[in-house]
Amino acid sequence: MHVYDYVGGKLDWLAAGLPTEGTNATHARAGAVARRDVPTCRLEEPMRAVRERATAAGWDACVVVNDERVVLGLLRAEELRKGDEERVERVMRPGPSTFRPHVSIDDINKFMMAHDLPNCPITTSDGRLVGLIRRDDVARATPP
């Protein structure tokens, strides 16, 4: 039987949002632009409570996570307007497109425009929520 110790590489370093140096260090990255104050919710919560919490915080989105903050789904504005007594798990968008913190803003901008997405979760390589990046944040961070 062989046992291997996993040693993280450069992509793990970048995915963790740790500082970098060199010519690429100055490029805007998802982890630097993502909003970390995004509201989160659980699968079993009623939509009314989630909507009220998100709206009170000034958001039109909420990320569905488990106890380890692994992203399970996403509630965008359209879903937040649905059924007061419905549980999140019946309304959410399961398995949303996510990006790692090291992905360039240019790449995210292209993807969001091509798929007409108002926002995207940013996660670590193991799926834990880092934050939510909004299209207007991407537009401000994208060089002309």
Low-confidence runs (pLDDT<50, min 5 residues)? Answer: none
| Distance between the amino and carboxyl termini | 55 Å
| Order of SSEs | HHEHEEHHEHEEH
Largest sheet: 4 strands, mixed
CATH architecture: Roll
- Structural classification: alpha+beta
Q: How many domains? A: 1
Q: Can you identify the CATH superfamily?
A: CBS-domain
User: Count of DSSP E strands?
Assistant: 6
Question: What does this entry show, briefly?
Answer:
This protein has 144 residues and is an alpha+beta fold.
Which terms would index this structure?
144 residues; alpha+beta; CBS-domain; four-stranded mixed β-sheet; two-stranded antiparallel ribbon; 7 helices; 17% strand; globular
Describe the protein.
The protein has a 4-stranded mixed β-sheet with strand order 1-2-3-4. Strands 5-6 form a two-stranded antiparallel sheet. It has helices at 10-15, 30-33, 47-56, 77-80, 88-91, 105-114, 135-141, and strands at 40-41, 62-65, 71-75, 93-94, 119-123, 129-134. The protein has 7 helices and 6 strands, in the order H-H-E-H-E-E-H-H-E-H-E-E-H. The radius of gyration is 17 Å and the shape is globular. It has one domain (11-16, 27-141): CBS-domain (Roll), CATH 3.10.580.10. The chain has 144 residues and is an alpha+beta fold. Helix 6 (105-114) crosses helix 7.
